[in-house]
Amino acid sequence: xxxxxxxxxxxxxxxxxxxxxxxxxxxxxxxxxxxxxxxxxxxxxxxxxxxxxxxxxxxxxxxxxxxxxxxxxxxxxxxxxxxxxxxxxxxxxxxxxxxxxxxxxxxxxxxxxxxxxxxxxxxxxxxxxxxxxxxxxxxx
Length: 140
What we know:
It is a single chain. The strands form 2 sheets. Strands 6-7-2-1-8 form a 5-stranded antiparallel beta sheet. The chain has a 5-stranded antiparallel beta sheet with strand order 5-3-4-10-9, with no helix packed on it. It contains 4 helices and 10 strands; from the N terminus they run ββαβββββααβββα. A hairpin with a 4-residue loop joins β3 and β4. It starts with about 25 loop residues before the first strand and ends with a helix. About 15% of the residues lie in helices and about 35% in strands. The protein is an alpha+beta fold. It has one domain.
């Protein structure tokens, strides 16, 4: 059967459907307005589907912020995770103020690592002296 006129150039036409979020790059971002963002990769790797809160800890000696995700809203220090399409976030203004941390200086993306820590157990950690270079912060 002969093709209709003009259809031969549209053979590759494909309807876009959600292909899923990019989960390869696991990142935590500190904003200059005291927020912490967890990208889709972090939400998948942690995993955060059944977690509603995060507990933060700070080590000045290690220059690190520690994240423990929980579904226990009554856990000591638990902050509510705000879930959104492709990630989650938490407001941390009081955390930064309490430890005299300047979010404007710390703003940027960090690659979290999962570690076993004394008195805490397994947790996610970002090292504040290991901010990702600008070219890795905003890939083209």
